[in-house]
């Protein structure tokens, strides 16, 4: 008898043991059952190799490509096949009874990729949230679980669909059992019914194990009869009726193949025992255990949040998977009906009354419109309170009504809430309407409470906090109300529904902010900053497209030159330097270089691997290849910038406040923070950014060594504090103590190594990472780090305490109390735990740096406005501000910025601000 079944219910609790013999077990009703069975491990591996691991992570170092691919496969197959019941079978570690039959079973397989580790458990979490049963049985394989359930269901008259890449599943195919065999990745499945099996293998499905026993199975390390392929095996089976007949007449089979068979009878018999599916495991027999439609939409959204999955896969989850929560659906439809009852489309007179009466105490806003490349419009606005929901077509307002709306929006005494205040303000500003009095930004509030979860849209927040599918419940309500309105009515209803959701979410997220102790961060920092950023985005920065075009032309010539140089070092025909397959052939076959990390498609040729190869070999082809990649990257950056220039000759990037978990701002559309500043080629791109007409110059101001100053402040290390207060070169000062030499005797190598250690510690770099960065041995890197700690013990003690405190509290904090939650600090998974420890080291430092530059931006903006200066802040690039100086204001603005940035926050060491000016961003560098 097998060990008890282990599995999971839809709420993640282990099943009780179900130990029924076939005789005692009730039969599974089959006439109305369409059972989908999935080989969990087989499909997880296919998903892993179908998607790049480096492109799918949860933000904490855990790869999630197999999880994403598997979830996508489940969604697709459920949607297309529409089963009534589903089960997923997994293998357990430690082997099975087959390993006792043959100790070389599955030997020789490649070691499981490091990035695959941990993903099976995450897949099982996804299945739990989907309400899909998953099963394991000790000493047996997933194949055996599938065989048992398939046989049982087919015998009861049900239909079975099996999703597996394992050819052993072919033996299960029958009139009511179909194999869905992956052809490409996990998205394209081939239907294998009895006719398809016979066409492909020339044997009936039930005889496929006989064929496999003769041919062998390389994936399982089961050697077949030498010289006997599928065609010969199929011919023998046809002639003798199966393997038993073949072995009974083995002496009659002539030729080398016949002799080879006789020499390997034992192998064939062993193979046949090995590939026979077990069909009588003790598995739960109650059909409700496998019934589809038990998924929890909110739980699934939470799991996807934790995995950092985007919105697309969420939208594609079919209702077929989800529980029909009648109460929840009724509540959603009831609320949708209430919205319809409260919804008004006010004329000018009614709008004026609303604004001065029901909406005088504030409202939730949802703005319909667009904003792109500095231009846009607001076509409609929905205003929601507990008593009324008004949808206003802005374009149809007369002058008096628009003036009334403008006054209401601009009144700072009227509190307003939106999902994204900056986006709403952009759309309204494009219409000539200014907004003041923002009291809540849902997107920012959610981020402050859950910084490591992927940002979600308004429907995602409604699903997470209201357990309500905003889109589907509205559609359902429309249908149930038998609405016969126009498309315009439906648009107004949807906009009003969204505004109502904003209103109901506000108190929930406000309570969340309080419970997470981050309410002041929203009210005093992030919300005011959103207004500053919105004005910066609306202004944009002037860009000379001609300069960018010239640079691109120069880079194109350079790209061709380095490509030709690269080809000269390898001989033969030119190759595609961007093709991993062609690079593998050149590097590892033609040039015989050391192998890099193995992947499914060969050996990796990513940038890190190529840099390591170049460090080892110094081969000129690699030098040219790396140069080609650099210039290609420059051309891609330039192309993106040119596409983003508005008709007015400006770039309007968008600063995101709810993406980087450390609190740093990020830039998109385009990303102006990824223009390389440490290379000459990158700096030349900045020459295209210039002061606008009517302005005198650009000014750049940045903090000097802010992370190290924060490290000194947080650690309280007297040596590090003295280094800053002395005014000496920090890294020379630190190096003199680490290497125990006089400051004047510190050579460039010493200074460089010490600088790498200082910043490495601030960014949670391990000794291994330090060794890679400096191209030294791990032993030397460890000694260097230990020497640093010996001289600066306060830093060592602070870093240790940071991790331990975070382990106890579950989070880290910045100087302003910004939290980052790190549940993986107590994880059993070593990789996730170590990643969390690195985050615990660097988040307080990087997050505090982000807090300080945000405080500085608020101070600088307020000072410019109070002084009625025309100069304006254009950009923020981490610890740097780019300011446009109006004629005659340079001296005043320089003084104002140095004071504002320098006094943004009082540390135990001074905040040093560097300033430069020039006509272009490049000229203003310092």
UniProtKB/TrEMBL annotation:
It catalyses: DNA(n) + a 2'-deoxyribonucleoside 5'-triphosphate = DNA(n+1) + diphosphate. Residues 33-293 form the 5'-3' exonuclease domain. It is an enzyme of class 2 (transferase). One of its GO terms (biological process) is DNA-templated DNA replication. GO terms for molecular function: 5'-3' exonuclease activity; DNA binding; DNA-directed DNA polymerase activity. Pfam families: 5_3_exonuc, 5_3_exonuc_N, DNA_pol_A, DNA_polI_exo1. It comes from the Bacteria. Keywords: DNA damage, DNA repair, DNA replication, DNA-binding, DNA-directed DNA polymerase, Exonuclease, Hydrolase, Nuclease, Nucleotidyltransferase, Transferase. Its EC number is 2.7.7.7. The keyword Nuclease applies. The keyword Plastid does not apply. Residues 682-889 form the DNA-directed DNA polymerase family A palm domain. Belongs to the DNA polymerase type-A family. In addition to polymerase activity, this DNA polymerase exhibits 5'-3' exonuclease activity. In addition to polymerase activity, this DNA polymerase exhibits 3'-5' and 5'-3' exonuclease activity. This is DNA polymerase I.
